[in-house]
Amino acid sequence: MTSRWSRRSFLAAGSGTAAALGLGTAWAFTAPDEFPALRARWRALILGEGFDPAAEPFRSRLADLGGTAGRYLATMAPAAGSLWPDLVYAQGDPDGDQDAYDRSSRLNSSYARLSTLAQAYCQPGTGLTGAPRVRDALLTGLGHLHDDVYHAGRVPYGNWYNWQIGIPQALLDLCVLLYDALPAARRAGFLTAVDHFVPDSVVADYTGSSTGANRVDLCRVLALRGVVGADPGKVALARDALSPVFRYVTSGDGLYADGSFIQHRSVPYTGSYGSVLLGGLGLLFALLAGSGWEVTDPGRQHVFDAVERAWAPFVYNGLVMDGVSGRAISRGRAAGARLQQDDHTRGHAVLAAIVLLGQGASAAENTRWRSLVKGWAERDRTSPPLADPTLSVPHLARLKGVQDDASVPAVPEPTGHRLFPCMARATHRRPGWAASLSMADRRITHYETGDGENLRGWHTGSGMLYWWGATFGGDQYGDAFWPTVDPYRLPGTTVSRKVLADGAGGDWGAVKPDVHWVGGATDGQRAAVGQYLKGFQSSLRAKKSWFFLDDAVVCLGAGITCADGTAVETTVDNRNLGAAGDAPFTADGTAGSAGAPWSRTLTGAGWAHLGGHGGYVFPGGATVRALREARDGSWSLINKGGSTAVLTRTYQTLYFDHGTDPADAAYAYVLLPGATAEATRARAADAGWLSVLANTNRQQGVSVPSAGFTGVNFWFGGTAGALTASDPCCVVVCEKADGTAVIVVSDPMRMRTGLTVTWRRAVGAVMSAPATLLASATGAELTLTFGDLSGTAGAGQQVTVGLG
Asked: What angle do CA 730, 734, 737 make, to 5 degrees?
């Protein structure tokens, strides 16, 4: 999916930029002291502007803010080791254990509560606006935390993030909001503390914890330290230290040329850390625009390009897909929290970040992005963004501004397929539905755990296939899915039932499978994708393929072998039916019970259908297990900081039972999102629609003549249907009605220094080809000879031909 908008030059520096950003003359900078204007601008950025506090959704949100702040005000009780009795931060057991992490997090939370108090003090309509008692409590609280723990000379404990990002960001925001009320000596002490915990050296090298979103967060700290302390060197350092974030990377953290975004070296993180990166850059671009420290590095265009190349493919009707949110999927509801995080709340934060970033982009980009955001927001009927209680007032103001702008049209969801070889992910969009695929390889972890989070996400990289309907299924993974789903039966995955420990494999994406063949090829609309699967802490081996088509996903598995002494299963689907769980299920025309629990073995099944969701076809018939069950769980089971409240959701599961220690087992099924029962029955009866060309440990491929589609994953060189490959590769052929065809060839292993592909089809001429194609021969058949593909990063090489 490529943007239809051309890229334009950057906004000019100086007062013209300020006007272009809509910041007005109030933000004009005058030499030599720009810092008062920068402080005023930051205040507006973090409080929001241009909204009516007496109108909804702001009136209620501001009242809620006042209520929360009032509770914090009433319970603040400064004591050694705490500012609130329920947030004891005094260092306990030795550094490095969970206790130290918990206590540093409580210190961070203490500053966050002070930030909430300051918001209530500065925002209108909170009931505490400008109240002297709130100001006095803030000064007392800030002084206590500084004197007790967050001061120069103190040795940090627990999570580095709290000391270098979370706490100083909140502290510096508070310094801006309370600038005139803070005694100069007190303010100087706070800045000295920031210098101690966040020295300039944190951005000296682009490595470790100073990369990607973390680097942007650190630059925000340095920039605000400079603004509050009127230190131009600090602001310049922050600006210059952003430059490595803009560059495309080829390994580790950051943005990749194919649109991938990685954090923690091996975790796809577009939806979580990526959101932080977008929002952080948007704030810094806006803060420094027109000043003597404006961000002018031309590399920032990579970030602007990434809005549509990296973020938009993973946003669907307001939600951001969980396959790129890492361990954040386990943060549904924290212990004692009133608000819940899910794929929609994470998506809304991305939407607001895009609006903010647009202020620093070209006029064309800003216009296009606002239209994208308006469309996503309008279509999010599951969780409307303006009713999202987790959104800050500034974020609400930005989204409300887009909603109310009659000049902004809502852009519909696009159709097409996007492959992200550098993070082993794929997205597929068709009219009425969308899907996302998560895999793992030698560069990309099976899953990430850490800080006691995502303790049972072991198999999320084992070929998990997510899918949503345009008008249904919007809460499929957001409605308590992660704490209640069977973690061994995630949709699309093939896994061993070997029992795994919570957090197995180690923190921060430590375990990656030693496999190379993961990836695929696409013409931009349809695709073939494959995963050589090595099971997580298991002897399981399998070859898995997905063929993404106009109204279906064809799924093949072969070579499924395991010696764990446990059962091995492939989950066709595991749909969350919510608390009621009464969607009708039909198999080959026979209805199952709408209640739960029940289980059936479907012998020789040709098709199945789940009302309100879609259909499933089993080519040639198959033995499939069907299960409906109500499952209990709590967020605390998958996240140590989660709520212990017990939740219940009903699931409709379809799975292949490959038995204990299978040898060379296989499966085949077709997913039909949104299909009716009659359409599913008709597809199953249409013997000519699909031809499975191969489903073995050596090749997997299909042909759909009516769509002109052929796709083959060559795990080894060989032949499948009319295609022959000399070596491992992926080949997609799409024949067009105009007498042309597109052949896309990729090297998922990134190892081929030469490759020959033959298509036994009459071809008249090669019309276009990439530089990697060394030679071609046409006539009764087409032969394509490629050179070195090892440097293509798994990207498809597209050849267009005229058919003979």
From this structure: 175
Dump pLDDT digits (tens) for 16-73.
Answer: 333 333 333 344 454 468 999 999 999 999 999 999 999 999 999 999 999 999 999 9
Among 273, 616, 651, 667, the active-site one is 273
* φ/ψ (deg, to 5) at 690: -125, 135
Q: List all residues 6 or more positions away from 524 whose beta carbon is below 8 Å from its beta carbon.
A: 1, 416, 417
Is residue 159 part of the annotated active site? The answer reads no
What is the per-residue pLDDT across 259-311, written as a single tens digit (0 to 9) for each? 999 999 999 999 999 999 999 999 999 999 999 999 999 999 999 999 999 99
Catalytic residue among 214, 317, 366, 713: 214
Q: Return the SS3 of 275.
A: helix
Closest to 190 in 3D by CA, of 211, 168, 205: 168
Asked whether the predicted pLDDT for residue 551 surpasses 60, the reply is yes
Chain mean pLDDT for the chain: 94
pLDDT at 7 (0 to 100): 25
CA angle 135/139/140 to nearest 5° reads: 115
The two three-digit tokens of residue 176, written as one number: 């801006």
CB-based contact 82:90 (threshold 8 Å): yes
The pair of structure tokens assigned to 87 is 């947030």
Claim: this prediction has a pTM higher than 0.85: yes
Mean pLDDT of 182-199: 98
User: Which residue matches tokens 């605000």?
Assistant: 224
Q: Let me know if 576 is a catalytic residue.
A: no
SS3 235: helix
- The residue behind tokens 């599961």 is 653
- The DSSP bridge pattern shows strands 773-777 and 740-746 to be unpaired
Peptide bond into 483 cis (omega under 30): no
Asked if residue 187 lies in contact with residue 171, where contact means CB atoms within 8 angstroms, the answer is no
Per-position b or e across 405-435, b if 16+ CB within 10 A of its CB: eeebebbebbebbbbbbbbbbbbbbbebbbb
In whole angstroms, give the CA distance from residue 437 to residue 623: 25
**What b-and-e string marks burial along 708-734, b requiring 16 or more CB atoms within 10 Å of the CB?**
ebbbbbbbebbbbbbbbbbbbbbbbbb
Q: Which residue in 428, 431, 434, 432 sits closest to 416, CA to CA? A: 428
Model pLDDT for residues 89-121, shown as the tens digit of each residue: 998 765 457 789 899 999 999 999 999 999 999
In the numeric block, which tokens belong to residue 315? Answer: 């946003």
**What's the token pair of residue 304?**
């602007």
Cβ 39 vs Cβ 228: under 8 Å: yes
List of E strands, 148-303: 254-255, 261-263, 267-268
Active-site option among 146, 264, 609, 613: 264
Query: Rounded to 10 degrees, what is the CA torsion of 222, 227, 231, 235?
Result: 50
The answer to whether 257 touches 202, Cβ cutoff 8 Å, is: no
Q: Is 273 in the active site?
A: yes
Question: Which DSSP category does 309 fall into?
Answer: I
Read off the amino acid at residue 24: G
For residues 414 and 90, what is the distance between their CA atoms, to the nearest angstrom? 52
Cβ–Cβ under 8 Å, residues 689 and 683? yes
User: What percent of the chain has a predicted confidence (pLDDT) above 70?
Assistant: 96
Residues 6+ apart with CB under 8 A from 478: 319, 342, 343, 344, 382, 383
**pLDDT value for 596:** 84
CB distance 724 to 757 below 8 Å: yes
HEC string of 486-510 equals CCCCCCCCEEECCCCCCCCCCCCCC
Q: What is the pLDDT of residue 16?
A: 32
707: three-class secondary structure by DSSP: helix
DSSP labels, 338-390: S----HHHHHHHHHHHHHHHHTTS-HHHHHHHHHHHHHHHHH--SS-GGG-TT
Cα 673 to Cα 703: distance, rounded to the nearest angstrom: 20
